[in-house]
Amino acid sequence: MRRGGLEYALRAFWIVLLVFLYAPLAVVVFFSFNSINSSARFAGFSLQWYERLFRNEAIVSALTNTVVLALVSTLIAVLIGGLLGYGFYRYRLGRLSWLIWLIYLPVIMPDIVFGIAEMTFFVAINERLGILSPGLGTMVIAHVTFQVPFVALLVNARLLSLDPQLFEACHDLYAGPWQRARFFLLPVLRPAILSSFLLALTLSIDDFVISFFTAGPQSTTLPIYIWSAIKKGVTPEVNAIATLMIGSVFVVALFSLLAQHGASGGKQSKGGTKA
Amino acid sequence: MLITIAPGALCILVFLVLPSAYLVGMAFLTNGPYGLPTLPLSLQSFRELAGFGFLGWSPGNLYTLIRSVWQTLLATALVILLAYPAAYYISTRPARWRPLMLLVIVVPSWTNQVIRSVGWMNIFAPGTPVSDFAALLGLTAPQMGLFPSQFAVIVGLVYNFLPFMVLPLYAAFERLDTEQVEAAKDLFASPVAVFRHAVFPQTLPGLMAGTVLVAIPAFGMYVVTELLGGGKATMIGNLVARQFAQASNWPLGAAGAIIMIAVTLIGLKVLRDLGRRLGGDREVVL
C-alpha cells in the first residue's frame, strides 16, 4: 500500500527529527557527568564538575543575576506593555497613530543591532550625565524595551477579539475606572497577561546578545558566563551549568504539560485543545 | 489616556528609537583615534564598508554580506524542508497527541541559544563519533573536528529556527480544507500535483509567516556563527559586533548595522511580492 509507505516514512522522519532536536542537549547532559575533561570520550561517572560549580562564587552570582534580570524585567514589561496594549485599543491616537508602528521595530531589528544601539546609547549618556553605568540596571532597561512590544501586541490582540458591547455594558452599569479594571479588564485579560508574562520571561532568559552588550563587569548572567568560559576553553564545567539550565527548562515544560492536561481534563468540551 | 500610553511610548521612544537614531547618526561620523566617532560628518565608513581602505579596494566585507545572505537562504530552505513533513505529521495525529508533539518540538528552543551551540560544539568537536565518521567518509581531515566550519553554522541555524517554521505551518495544516485534497485525488492528480494545487496554496500564509520568523533573525545571527563558525563563516552581524566589541571602529560598525536593516527590509519586500505572486488572488498576509 502506498499510504502505508508514506506513513512509515513520516514516522521514521519524526524519529530522526527528535534525535536531531535532542542530541545536542543529551550530549551536554551526558558529558557533564564525565570524570575527565573531555567531550569526546566518557571515562566514568563523576559529579566533580557540579561540586566545583557550587563552590564557584562567580557562577552563583551569575545565577542570581539571571533570575533577578528575568523576573524584574518581565514584571515591569507586563505592566507597561499591558497598559500600552490597552491604551492603543481604548484611545484614538489621532496625530500620534504612527506610534503603533514603532512597536514593530524590534521585530525587524536584528538583536545584535538593538544590543549595540543600546550599548552606545548608554555609554553616551553615562559619559555626559554620569548615570546609567553598565550593569543590572541597564540590562533591565534593555530587556524591558524589547519585551514591551510583544506584551502590548498580545494584550491588544485579546482586546480586539472581545465583543465591543462588553465595554458598553461596563459603561451602562456606571463602572468607574477602577471597577472597570478590577471586575472586567483584569478577568478577561488574564489569559493574555499570563501568556505575555511567559513569553516575556522566555525572551529574557533566551537572550544572550542584548545582555552581553549592556552588561557591566559585576552583572554577568549564566549565558554570558558560559560564553566567556567557552572562549577560554573550559568545557566540562560549562556542560554542568548548561545541564542545570536544561533541567529547569524541562521542569517548566512538564508543568506546562500538566497545566494543559488539567485544563483540557477539567473542561473537556471547550478545552484549549481543538477536538 | 496618559497613564496607559505614556509609560510604554516613552520606554520605546527613549530606549529604542533614540538609541537607533543615535546609531544611524554615528555611521555618518568619522572614526576617531580610539575607535570612537568624531566630527566631521562623512561617508567614510560606508566607503570603508564597501572595501575602500588605505590599501586600496578589497572585497572582504562584500563577501561577508553575500555569505550572510547565502547562509540565510540555505538555512531557511533546509528549515522549510524539515518543517513541512513535521507539521503535516503532527496535524495527522490524534488530537490529544498534538499539543505534546508541538511541545516536544519547542522545548529545545527554550534553552539559551549559547547552550544549544555548546551542544553542537560537543558533537562536532575533534574525536567525537560524528567527527570520526565524517573523517572516515573523507569529508574532513582526520583528527579535525567538524567545527568550526560553515557546515556547523548551517546546522546551528537550522537547529535554532526549526520551531519557528513548524508552529505556523502546523497552524496552517490544522486549518487545511481536506475536501480540496480529496477532490484533487478524485481527479487523479499525482501526489506532486495534489501538493502543488491543493495543499501548498493553503499552507502558503503559514509558510510566509514562518519564513519571516526564520530568515530575519537568521540573517542577524551572532551567537551561532561566532561559536560554531569560529571566524570561518562570519556573518554581517559578527562583522558589526567586532567593530564595537574590540572598539576598533564604531562608525564602520554603525554603517554595517544600517546595511543589515536595509537588507532585512529589502528581504521583507521581496518575500511580500513573492507571496503575492505565489498566492494569486489569495490574501497572503505578511
From TrEMBL, chain A:
It is found in: Cell membrane. Residues 63-256 form the ABC transmembrane type-1 domain. It holds the Pfam family BPD_transp_1. Its main location: membrane. PROSITE patterns: ABC_TM1 (PS50928). The keyword Transport applies. SUPFAM superfamilies: MetI-like. Belongs to the binding-protein-dependent transport system permease family. CysTW subfamily. This is ABC transporter permease.
Automatic annotation (TrEMBL), chain B:
Its main location: membrane. Coiled coil: none annotated. It is found in: Cell membrane. Residues 65-271 form the ABC transmembrane type-1 domain. Gene3D superfamilies: MetI-like (1.10.3720.10). This is ABC transporter permease. CDD domains: TM_PBP2. InterPro entries: MetI-like, MetI-like_sf. The keyword Membrane applies. The chain crosses the membrane at residues 6-29, 72-90, 121-139, 151-173, 207-229, 250-271. It is a multi-pass membrane protein. Keywords: Cell membrane, Membrane, Transmembrane, Transmembrane helix, Transport. It holds the Pfam family BPD_transp_1. Belongs to the binding-protein-dependent transport system permease family. CysTW subfamily.
